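User: C-alpha coordinates for this complex, please. No commentary.
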Amino acid sequence: MPTKESPIEIRKLDSKIHDRSDFDCGHDRLNNYLKTSATKLLKGDFTRIYVAIELGQSNVLGYHAINFGELDARSLEKIPRGAPAHMQLPVLFLGQIAVDKTASGNGIGGILMHHVFEKAVQLADEAGCWAIILDAVDDDGEEPFRRRVGWYEEFGFQIMPSKKCRMFMTLKDVRGAVEARKQALQEAG
Amino acid sequence: MLSMRDPHTNEANDVTTQIRHGNTIKNKIETAAAVLGVSKSTFLRWAVDRQCTSVIEEQQSHKLTEADAAAFSAALDRPVVVTQRAAKSAKSFATRVVHAD
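Assistant:
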Protein backbone atom coordinates (compact mmCIF):
# COMPACT_ATOMS: atom_id res chain seq x y z
CA MET A 1 0.00 0.00 0.00
CA PRO A 2 1.29 3.48 -0.79
CA THR A 3 2.42 5.95 1.84
CA LYS A 4 2.42 9.74 1.63
CA GLU A 5 5.89 9.54 0.08
CA SER A 6 5.43 6.62 -2.36
CA PRO A 7 6.55 7.34 -5.94
CA ILE A 8 3.56 7.37 -8.27
CA GLU A 9 3.11 6.77 -11.97
CA ILE A 10 0.19 8.17 -13.91
CA ARG A 11 -0.61 6.15 -16.99
CA LYS A 12 -3.33 6.00 -19.60
CA LEU A 13 -5.57 3.14 -18.58
CA ASP A 14 -4.61 -0.07 -20.34
CA SER A 15 -7.01 -2.86 -19.46
CA LYS A 16 -4.39 -5.45 -20.33
CA ILE A 17 -1.89 -4.05 -17.83
CA HIS A 18 -3.75 -2.28 -15.04
CA ASP A 19 -5.50 -4.35 -12.42
CA ARG A 20 -8.89 -2.88 -11.55
CA SER A 21 -10.47 -6.02 -10.13
CA ASP A 22 -10.23 -5.00 -6.45
CA PHE A 23 -10.74 -1.28 -6.94
CA ASP A 24 -13.19 0.11 -4.39
CA CYS A 25 -13.55 3.83 -3.77
CA GLY A 26 -16.75 3.31 -1.77
CA HIS A 27 -19.09 4.40 -4.55
CA ASP A 28 -20.61 1.73 -6.79
CA ARG A 29 -21.03 3.82 -9.94
CA LEU A 30 -17.45 5.08 -9.79
CA ASN A 31 -16.18 1.51 -9.25
CA ASN A 32 -18.36 0.22 -12.06
CA TYR A 33 -17.17 2.96 -14.38
CA LEU A 34 -13.55 1.89 -13.99
CA LYS A 35 -14.24 -1.83 -14.10
CA THR A 36 -16.79 -2.08 -16.90
CA SER A 37 -17.48 1.22 -18.70
CA ALA A 38 -13.93 2.49 -19.10
CA THR A 39 -12.76 0.17 -21.87
CA LYS A 40 -15.87 0.80 -23.97
CA LEU A 41 -15.54 4.58 -23.61
CA LEU A 42 -11.84 4.48 -24.47
CA LYS A 43 -12.49 2.42 -27.60
CA GLY A 44 -15.18 4.87 -28.68
CA ASP A 45 -12.79 7.80 -28.19
CA PHE A 46 -15.36 9.40 -25.91
CA THR A 47 -13.01 9.93 -23.03
CA ARG A 48 -9.50 9.33 -21.72
CA ILE A 49 -8.91 7.63 -18.41
CA TYR A 50 -5.69 7.97 -16.44
CA VAL A 51 -4.77 5.76 -13.53
CA ALA A 52 -2.41 6.30 -10.61
CA ILE A 53 -0.29 3.32 -9.70
CA GLU A 54 2.59 2.76 -7.35
CA LEU A 55 5.93 2.64 -9.12
CA GLY A 56 6.34 -0.76 -10.76
CA GLN A 57 2.92 -2.03 -9.62
CA SER A 58 -0.20 -2.74 -11.65
CA ASN A 59 -3.11 -2.31 -9.27
CA VAL A 60 -5.03 0.94 -9.68
CA LEU A 61 -4.89 3.31 -6.70
CA GLY A 62 -7.07 5.95 -8.30
CA TYR A 63 -8.23 7.33 -11.62
CA HIS A 64 -9.64 10.30 -13.41
CA ALA A 65 -11.61 10.56 -16.65
CA ILE A 66 -11.48 13.57 -18.94
CA ASN A 67 -13.01 14.57 -22.26
CA PHE A 68 -13.22 17.61 -24.49
CA GLY A 69 -16.28 19.77 -24.36
CA GLU A 70 -17.75 23.12 -25.19
CA LEU A 71 -18.93 26.06 -23.14
CA ASP A 72 -21.66 28.14 -24.73
CA ALA A 73 -20.57 31.56 -23.50
CA ARG A 74 -22.86 33.76 -25.57
CA SER A 75 -24.43 35.14 -22.42
CA LEU A 76 -21.17 36.72 -21.26
CA GLU A 77 -21.64 40.48 -21.30
CA LYS A 78 -18.00 41.17 -22.02
CA ILE A 79 -16.29 39.06 -24.70
CA PRO A 80 -13.03 37.75 -23.21
CA ARG A 81 -9.89 38.60 -25.13
CA GLY A 82 -9.07 35.87 -27.63
CA ALA A 83 -12.52 34.27 -27.56
CA PRO A 84 -13.88 33.07 -30.92
CA ALA A 85 -16.74 35.11 -32.38
CA HIS A 86 -19.20 32.22 -32.05
CA MET A 87 -18.44 32.11 -28.30
CA GLN A 88 -18.35 28.34 -28.10
CA LEU A 89 -15.33 28.01 -25.85
CA PRO A 90 -13.40 24.73 -25.72
CA VAL A 91 -13.24 23.29 -22.22
CA LEU A 92 -12.07 20.14 -20.50
CA PHE A 93 -14.71 18.07 -18.74
CA LEU A 94 -13.51 16.15 -15.72
CA GLY A 95 -15.83 13.16 -15.50
CA GLN A 96 -14.63 12.03 -12.12
CA ILE A 97 -11.72 11.42 -9.79
CA ALA A 98 -11.83 8.39 -7.53
CA VAL A 99 -9.32 6.87 -5.13
CA ASP A 100 -9.32 3.33 -3.75
CA LYS A 101 -10.26 3.25 -0.05
CA THR A 102 -7.02 1.51 0.87
CA ALA A 103 -5.00 4.31 -0.73
CA SER A 104 -6.99 7.30 0.48
CA GLY A 105 -5.32 9.85 2.72
CA ASN A 106 -2.01 9.51 0.89
CA GLY A 107 -2.35 12.40 -1.52
CA ILE A 108 -3.40 10.32 -4.55
CA GLY A 109 -6.54 12.38 -5.19
CA GLY A 110 -4.56 15.62 -5.12
CA ILE A 111 -1.95 14.20 -7.47
CA LEU A 112 -4.68 13.08 -9.87
CA MET A 113 -6.30 16.50 -9.69
CA HIS A 114 -2.99 18.14 -10.46
CA HIS A 115 -2.58 15.81 -13.44
CA VAL A 116 -5.91 17.10 -14.75
CA PHE A 117 -4.52 20.64 -14.39
CA GLU A 118 -1.42 19.66 -16.37
CA LYS A 119 -3.59 18.11 -19.10
CA ALA A 120 -5.79 21.21 -19.30
CA VAL A 121 -2.76 23.47 -19.76
CA GLN A 122 -1.31 21.15 -22.42
CA LEU A 123 -4.63 21.20 -24.26
CA ALA A 124 -4.89 24.97 -23.91
CA ASP A 125 -1.46 25.40 -25.43
CA GLU A 126 -2.13 23.01 -28.30
CA ALA A 127 -5.83 23.34 -29.09
CA GLY A 128 -7.40 25.87 -26.74
CA CYS A 129 -9.08 25.38 -23.38
CA TRP A 130 -10.81 27.98 -21.26
CA ALA A 131 -11.82 26.07 -18.17
CA ILE A 132 -12.25 22.74 -16.47
CA ILE A 133 -15.84 21.72 -15.79
CA LEU A 134 -16.95 18.88 -13.56
CA ASP A 135 -20.01 17.44 -11.86
CA ALA A 136 -19.70 16.43 -8.22
CA VAL A 137 -21.42 13.09 -7.63
CA ASP A 138 -24.71 13.76 -5.85
CA ASP A 139 -26.55 10.46 -5.68
CA ASP A 140 -25.63 9.25 -2.19
CA GLY A 141 -26.94 11.93 0.11
CA GLU A 142 -26.39 15.55 0.96
CA GLU A 143 -23.46 15.11 3.35
CA PRO A 144 -21.19 13.15 0.97
CA PHE A 145 -22.16 15.57 -1.80
CA ARG A 146 -21.21 18.59 0.33
CA ARG A 147 -17.92 16.89 1.22
CA ARG A 148 -17.09 16.36 -2.45
CA VAL A 149 -18.01 19.92 -3.40
CA GLY A 150 -15.84 21.13 -0.52
CA TRP A 151 -12.95 19.01 -1.76
CA TYR A 152 -13.16 20.54 -5.24
CA GLU A 153 -13.55 24.03 -3.78
CA GLU A 154 -10.30 23.56 -1.91
CA PHE A 155 -8.57 23.32 -5.30
CA GLY A 156 -10.24 26.50 -6.57
CA PHE A 157 -13.36 25.19 -8.29
CA GLN A 158 -16.58 27.10 -7.85
CA ILE A 159 -20.20 26.14 -8.34
CA MET A 160 -22.09 27.04 -11.50
CA PRO A 161 -25.11 28.92 -10.16
CA SER A 162 -27.46 27.15 -12.61
CA LYS A 163 -26.67 23.62 -11.43
CA LYS A 164 -25.72 22.70 -7.90
CA CYS A 165 -23.38 19.84 -8.79
CA ARG A 166 -21.65 21.50 -11.76
CA MET A 167 -18.41 23.33 -10.98
CA PHE A 168 -15.79 25.19 -12.97
CA MET A 169 -12.28 26.56 -12.72
CA THR A 170 -10.92 28.98 -15.29
CA LEU A 171 -7.72 28.11 -17.07
CA LYS A 172 -6.08 31.20 -15.63
CA ASP A 173 -6.23 29.64 -12.16
CA VAL A 174 -5.32 26.21 -13.50
CA ARG A 175 -2.17 27.70 -15.03
CA GLY A 176 -1.36 29.14 -11.63
CA ALA A 177 -1.37 25.64 -10.13
CA VAL A 178 0.84 24.32 -12.91
CA GLU A 179 3.27 27.18 -12.36
CA ALA A 180 3.34 26.20 -8.67
CA ARG A 181 4.40 22.69 -9.72
CA LYS A 182 7.21 24.09 -11.88
CA GLN A 183 8.38 26.26 -9.01
CA ALA A 184 8.31 23.31 -6.58
CA LEU A 185 10.38 21.31 -9.04
CA GLN A 186 12.97 24.10 -9.25
CA GLU A 187 13.13 24.38 -5.47
CA ALA A 188 13.62 20.62 -5.18
CA GLY A 189 16.52 20.90 -7.60
CA MET B 1 -51.20 16.13 -27.90
CA LEU B 2 -47.62 16.31 -26.59
CA SER B 3 -44.91 16.59 -29.20
CA MET B 4 -42.79 13.58 -30.13
CA ARG B 5 -40.98 12.23 -33.16
CA ASP B 6 -39.84 8.63 -33.46
CA PRO B 7 -36.05 8.73 -33.91
CA HIS B 8 -34.28 6.79 -36.67
CA THR B 9 -37.42 6.12 -38.69
CA ASN B 10 -35.26 5.47 -41.78
CA GLU B 11 -33.28 2.84 -39.94
CA ALA B 12 -34.36 -0.78 -39.60
CA ASN B 13 -35.45 -1.38 -36.03
CA ASP B 14 -34.01 -4.86 -35.89
CA VAL B 15 -31.92 -4.72 -32.73
CA THR B 16 -33.46 -5.70 -29.42
CA THR B 17 -32.53 -4.64 -25.89
CA GLN B 18 -34.08 -6.42 -22.97
CA ILE B 19 -34.42 -4.77 -19.58
CA ARG B 20 -35.92 -5.89 -16.31
CA HIS B 21 -38.15 -3.54 -14.36
CA GLY B 22 -40.93 -3.49 -11.82
CA ASN B 23 -44.62 -2.68 -12.01
CA THR B 24 -44.17 1.00 -11.27
CA ILE B 25 -42.09 1.47 -14.40
CA LYS B 26 -44.42 -0.80 -16.39
CA ASN B 27 -47.41 1.34 -15.48
CA LYS B 28 -45.55 4.55 -16.27
CA ILE B 29 -44.46 3.25 -19.67
CA GLU B 30 -47.99 2.17 -20.56
CA THR B 31 -49.52 5.45 -19.41
CA ALA B 32 -46.93 7.62 -21.14
CA ALA B 33 -47.18 5.64 -24.40
CA ALA B 34 -50.98 5.93 -24.27
CA VAL B 35 -50.79 9.69 -23.61
CA LEU B 36 -48.61 10.11 -26.69
CA GLY B 37 -50.76 7.75 -28.74
CA VAL B 38 -47.92 5.38 -29.71
CA SER B 39 -46.92 1.79 -29.04
CA LYS B 40 -44.72 0.95 -26.05
CA SER B 41 -41.92 0.09 -28.45
CA THR B 42 -42.11 3.45 -30.21
CA PHE B 43 -42.32 5.28 -26.90
CA LEU B 44 -39.33 3.50 -25.39
CA ARG B 45 -37.24 4.08 -28.50
CA TRP B 46 -38.05 7.79 -28.35
CA ALA B 47 -37.54 8.10 -24.60
CA VAL B 48 -34.24 6.22 -24.57
CA ASP B 49 -32.94 8.24 -27.52
CA ARG B 50 -33.81 11.51 -25.75
CA GLN B 51 -32.16 10.45 -22.51
CA CYS B 52 -29.02 9.17 -24.24
CA THR B 53 -28.66 12.43 -26.15
CA SER B 54 -29.14 14.40 -22.96
CA VAL B 55 -26.51 12.43 -21.00
CA ILE B 56 -23.93 12.68 -23.77
CA GLU B 57 -24.56 16.40 -24.29
CA GLU B 58 -24.35 17.08 -20.59
CA GLN B 59 -20.92 15.46 -20.45
CA GLN B 60 -19.71 17.52 -23.40
CA SER B 61 -21.29 20.93 -23.13
CA HIS B 62 -22.55 23.60 -20.81
CA LYS B 63 -24.58 26.65 -21.70
CA LEU B 64 -23.90 29.56 -19.40
CA THR B 65 -27.02 31.12 -17.94
CA GLU B 66 -26.92 34.79 -17.00
CA ALA B 67 -25.99 33.88 -13.43
CA ASP B 68 -23.32 31.44 -14.66
CA ALA B 69 -21.96 34.09 -17.00
CA ALA B 70 -21.66 36.59 -14.15
CA ALA B 71 -19.76 34.05 -12.02
CA PHE B 72 -17.53 32.98 -14.91
CA SER B 73 -16.82 36.58 -15.87
CA ALA B 74 -15.91 37.48 -12.29
CA ALA B 75 -13.54 34.49 -12.14
CA LEU B 76 -11.87 35.59 -15.38
CA ASP B 77 -11.46 39.17 -14.12
CA ARG B 78 -10.01 38.52 -10.68
CA PRO B 79 -6.30 37.91 -10.03
CA VAL B 80 -5.01 34.34 -10.30
CA VAL B 81 -5.83 32.24 -7.25
CA VAL B 82 -3.75 29.22 -6.31
CA THR B 83 -5.30 27.71 -3.21
CA GLN B 84 -3.22 26.09 -0.47
CA ARG B 85 -4.56 22.70 -1.49
CA ALA B 86 -3.71 23.24 -5.15
CA ALA B 87 -0.20 24.38 -4.20
CA LYS B 88 0.26 21.37 -1.92
CA SER B 89 -0.84 18.97 -4.65
CA ALA B 90 1.42 20.72 -7.15
CA LYS B 91 4.32 20.10 -4.80
CA SER B 92 3.34 16.44 -4.29
CA PHE B 93 3.09 16.00 -8.03
CA ALA B 94 6.53 17.56 -8.51
CA THR B 95 8.19 15.39 -5.90
CA ARG B 96 6.33 12.06 -6.14
CA VAL B 97 5.23 11.55 -9.72
CA VAL B 98 7.99 9.71 -11.57
CA HIS B 99 6.05 9.31 -14.81
CA ALA B 100 2.93 10.96 -16.20
CA ASP B 101 1.40 10.14 -19.60
